[in-house]
Design brief:
heterotrimer, A mainly alpha (about 290), B mainly alpha (about 240), C mainly alpha (about 475), A: about 290 residues, mainly alpha, about 0% strand, C: 5 strands, about 55% helix
Chain lengths: ~290, ~240, ~475
């Protein structure tokens, strides 16, 4: 009885410290999802500067193009009489089979990846209740530029992936990888897709997968090395991730303890110095 | 006035090591915080000057090696000098903390609050000992967590991976405390006190006038004046 | 021969270029492989900055929104979405492209998230017209003709309501400018029983006297602020006249001679080498209170807790005013005006607590400890009491503001003293929107009293002490 009560108090203290620590490390700001919306208009100047700038409309929108030709009967262009005409998200209604005509490998990988599976299972994101992304959710198809540098692409990933995974983006930016890569633009640091892959979008919760990801840059990475926590956030942790959740709480609690210690130590010495200076200055003034 | 007007307070080696540690510490603080607060405008400016994240990381390690080497050289010399040449580690002339320091702290605080006389400090007052031991111990703990962050692959041969997170957290907070104290308290004490303003130069030229010794280290002054004490002829 | 051919070719090229420029632009450049009707006939982005673009944009929107049955069904109720061009009246918005303001509607799904972008063209209001809590009120909540407002709990913004008091859906398509001179306008929110977290009364703007501790504007603000300022100025002038009564260097002279001598001295002091000496006195004796420190560390500490905190608050207030005047739309200005912003909230609460500590310690010194050198005059006691009451009311007002504005904990908790107090106040059975107004007036009134009393009571030393210090220095 005595033991269990003490245990409960310890747990309560740990939870309190973790809460303070979580506040100190400022949890991921709930940003509004910045997923691209399909405008009715195409800015030609930007389109022509983009990667797809040389393509004619019909190469990606063949059905709509046909609908415009005279004498055709089967209307494929969105029909204003359709009750869903205004509410249908065009971005999701598009036939992305068109993309694979040029981007076959990306298409195959996407279909093996977690996003395609989530789309099939109709899983929504936890915070913003969005369905899993299709091509145009991540790729700005009309205006995206080709041959951007590694850092520019990586920084774009932090925003794009972060729109649906804000906690992961925020923790990545506080991690050394994010500080060196995204913020300081070091091309040898890891960006989102360097660990999670782009179209496959792997979860790295399995130890073997995590170790394989680490080893791409750290060849000597051991299974223990892969336990390093890049994203110390409690969102998206299921019952299977109890070990990680505990460590995240430990990190938060330690942050709180260290913050309190730092404030006390620094506060004591600052007060000591202030008082001392005042007294010494007074002595000096009195001598004159 | 037949005696010398100054005493030798710091040896050449310690003066040299102080400069090395000073430069190294400023470099460590600058590069380390620029890496951690990389999103801030000042950090971006420092990174731009010092060669981006790679430059910052290299300089941070270089400064760390330099500073830690200075600490090690000091320790080895100190042990040799104290243990081999003098035969004892403690004593009123040394940096070893003793109960007198705790009493001095409370008397000093009382004096600041307007109660009683100022304590009569020896060669090294308690705050100087705090400064010294904070660096000596701090450099070793910072070095340890720093090594974990430098060679995470090797350390994770026997430590779980989240110890790297812990090491980073400890490294960060200790750095914050160290910089908040050294860059403010140490600088104020060394520059802004009316007695030493604009700058206490004794750590650079090694000497301290007997007048100042009498004012700031009266216990040491008394020991120097007492003719029988061997400490008195040390400077002859 | 080749030269002639080249000149001919050049001339031909020039002629063709001129002809091309003169020809009317019929179509945007067509990508290859398009049929007689082009995708880009409809889908090219119009230039909204041009008259043609604005007209095209309006025409496109009115294609549907000009039709009569243009409705949206919300919770089974039909919301009219028809836009009458007549409703724009003489407003300049009549000639603006719809898409210039409604930037995110031209898309599928046809739905706005960001709303109309007023601030893209119009700068926001400053502290004078707008107290900080209004920064979470959408422009349309005041500037639209619809009188029904609601608090969006998710974003913390006060917006136009979608339904009226009877629960009927409101069409918000009236684009006519609202007459903001009507007093009724403020009563949309500032009324008993409002659900948007507004105080129960329309409070005056902060006047110049509030710069003592807050960011405000150089205006009178309210008549009793003005009265306080007037009494304050009268007190200063009376004090100055008192100085004039004395004899200068033993000689009785007429008033104008004294003024002449005084201004002569001031002039010669300003433009002589002794100005450095005077500045040194200002820096050491006025700002850092050297003489007080010489007397006693304890007294310097007590005095500085109050004096330096007020000085710091005044500095922050003036800095905020300056930043807002120079860059009204900058992030810095918005952050400084935002009372929930981490830096502003922590600074205000910390300085307030330090002042309060100073007042408490001074009171303890005066009434409990009573060392020999303390002479507790009633004038001092009044100043101390006014100051203490002002600070306490300030904290309570701040807590009530947090309480009624319903700011979520992560945003409001930076006010580390006022936020816990607001949680405590929430337990009291008080109508806080009404109480807030009383608290505000109470704090303002005590502050006005404080300012008016400055030249008469103990606090007069604020002006006399520096003056005599400088004069003494010059006489030496």
């Amino acid at each position: 009885m005595q033991h269990s009560r003490g245990h409960r108090w310890a747990r309560l203290l740990l939870a309190l410290l973790a809460a303070l620590g979580a506040w100190l490390v400022s949890p991921a700001a709930a940003q509004t999802p910045a997923a691209q919306q399909s405008s009715w208009f195409v800015d030609l100047a930007r389109f022509q500067a983009g990667a797809h700038g040389k393509l004619a409309c019909a190469e990606c929108h063949p059905a709509q193009e046909k609908a415009l030709s005279p004498g055709q009967t089967q209307l494929k262009h969105p029909d204003p009489a359709d009750p869903k005409y205004l509410t249908n998200p065009a971005l999701r209604a598009y036939d992305y089979g068109q993309c694979q005509r040029c981007h076959r490998l990306a298409w195959q990988r996407y279909n093996q990846g977690a996003h395609a599976k989530a789309l099939k299972d109709k899983v929504l994101t936890k915070q913003s209740r969005l369905p899993a992304p299709v091509c145009a959710d991540c790729h700005d198809v009309h205006y995206a530029r080709a041959r951007r540098g590694r850092v520019a692409l990586g920084r774009a990933q932090t925003n794009t992936c972060g729109a649906c995974h804000p906690a992961q983006a925020a923790t990545y930016l506080k991690d050394y990888h994010g500080q060196a890569g995204d913020k300081l633009g070091w091309d040898k640091a890891a960006f989102c897709s360097d660990c999670h892959q782009a179209h496959d979008c792997q979860s790295l919760k399995k130890p073997e997968a995590a170790q394989a990801a680490c080893q791409r840059c750290h060849p000597q990475a051991t299974p223990r090395f892969a336990q390093y926590i890049v994203h110390p956030a409690s969102v998206d942790l299921g019952p299977a991730d109890a070990a990680k959740a505990q460590r995240v709480y430990l990190l938060w609690a330690l942050t709180a303890v260290l913050a309190v210690v730092a404030v006390c130590v620094v506060g004591f010495f600052y007060g000591h110095t202030l008082l001392w200076m005042l007294r010494e200055i007074q002595h000096k003034l009195r001598k004159h | 006035m037949d005696g010398p007007s100054h005493i030798q307070r710091f040896s050449v080696l310690n003066r040299l090591l102080h400069i090395v540690v000073m430069v190294g510490f400023v470099g460590l603080g600058l590069t380390g915080f620029s890496l951690y607060f990389a999103g801030a405008w000042w950090a971006q400016a420092v990174a731009w000057v010092l060669g981006g994240a790679a430059g910052l990381a290299w300089l941070h390690r270089a400064c760390a090696v330099m500073t830690y080497a200075a600490v090690m050289i000091h320790l080895i010399w100190l042990l040799y000098y104290k243990a081999v040449l003098k035969g004892r580690l403690t004593g009123p002339q040394g940096m070893f903390p003793c109960w007198q320091d705790v009493r001095d702290l409370f008397r000093h605080l009382g004096w600041m609050l307007g109660r009683g006389q100022a304590p009569r400090f020896g060669r090294f007052a308690y705050w100087e000992k705090v400064d010294y031991w904070a660096v000596l111990i701090g450099m070793n703990t910072m070095g340890l967590t720093g090594l974990v962050l430098w060679f995470p692959e090797w350390f994770s041969n026997f430590l779980p991976g989240y110890f790297i997170n812990l090491a980073l957290l400890l490294h960060l907070f200790e750095a914050i405390i160290a910089v908040a104290l050294k860059f403010v308290v140490h600088v104020i004490v060394g520059h802004l006190r009316p007695d030493v303003f604009p700058m206490d130069q004794s750590i650079f030229h090694g000497r301290m006038s007997l007048e100042r010794v009498r004012a700031e280290h009266p216990a040491q002054y008394e020991a120097l004046q007492a003719p029988a004490e061997p400490a008195g002829d040390k400077h002859a | 021969m080749p030269r002639l051919a080249a000149i001919a070719a050049l001339l031909a090229a020039l002629f063709m270029a001129t002809a091309a420029l003169a020809a009317p632009v019929a179509m945007p450049p067509a990508p290859a492989g398009s049929g007689p009707r082009l995708c880009l006939d409809c889908h090219h982005l119009p230039n909204l900055a041009s008259n043609e673009g604005a007209a095209a944009s309006q025409a496109l929107c009115l294609e549907c929104h000009g039709q009569d049955p243009c409705i949206r069904t919300v919770d089974g109720r039909a919301v009219p979405l028809k836009v009458e061009l007549k409703s724009f009246g003489t407003s300049r918005h009549r000639w603006t492209a719809c898409l210039s303001c409604h930037t995110d509607v031209a898309r599928s799904p046809h739905k706005s998230v960001s709303g109309a972008q007023c601030l893209a063209c119009h700068p926001g209001h400053g502290e004078s017209a707008l107290h900080d809590p209004h920064s979470s009120v959408q422009c349309s909540a005041c500037h639209n003709k619809s009188a029904f407002v609601a608090l969006d709990k998710k974003t913390g913004l006060v917006k136009l309501a979608r339904v009226d008091a009877a629960g009927r859906a409101i069409g918000l398509t009236d684009h006519g400018p609202n007459d903001l001179r009507e007093d009724k306008l403020c009563a949309r929110c500032h009324a008993a029983g409002n659900k948007v977290g507004a105080p129960n009364a329309v409070l005056p703007a902060k006047g110049a006297i509030c710069f003592l501790c807050h960011s405000a504007s150089f205006s009178i603000g309210s008549w009793w602020f003005g009265l306080a300022l007037l009494i304050f100025l009268i007190g200063l002038v009376t004090g100055a006249l008192f100085y004039m009564k004395g004899s200068v260097a033993g000689q009785e002279k007429s008033l104008h001679a004294k003024i002449a001598a005084g201004s002569e001295t001031l002039w010669s002091a300003l433009f002589s080498r002794t100005i450095w000496e005077t500045l040194k006195v200002l820096w050491l004796d006025v700002l850092w209170q050297r003489r007080l420190l010489k007397e006693s560390v304890r007294r310097w500490f007590l005095h500085s807790l109050i004096y330096l905190s007020i000085l710091a608050k005044m500095g922050l207030g003036l800095f905020t005013w300056l930043v807002y005047k120079l860059w009204p739309a900058s992030d810095l200005a918005l952050a400084l005006l935002n009372k929930n912003h981490g830096f502003v909230a922590v600074t205000n609460d910390l300085l307030g607590l330090l002042m309060l500590l100073g007042v408490l310690l001074a009171a303890l010194q005066r009434w409990v400890v009573r060392p020999d050198y303390v002479v507790a005059e009633w004038k001092d006691n009044i100043a101390l009491i006014i100051l203490g009451v002002m600070i306490l009311l300030g904290f309570t007002t701040e807590a009530a503001r947090i309480l009624i504005s319903q700011a979520p904990a992560p945003a409001a908790a930076w006010s580390f003293a006022a936020y816990p107090l607001s949680r405590l106040l929430a337990r009291l059975p008080v109508d806080w929107p009404t109480a807030y107004a009383w608290l505000w007036y109470g704090h303002g009134l005590v502050a006005a009293l404080f300012v008016a009393y400055l030249p008469f009571g103990k606090m007069r030393h604020m002006f006399t002490a520096p003056l005599s210090l400088i004069i003494n220095r010059r006489l030496q």
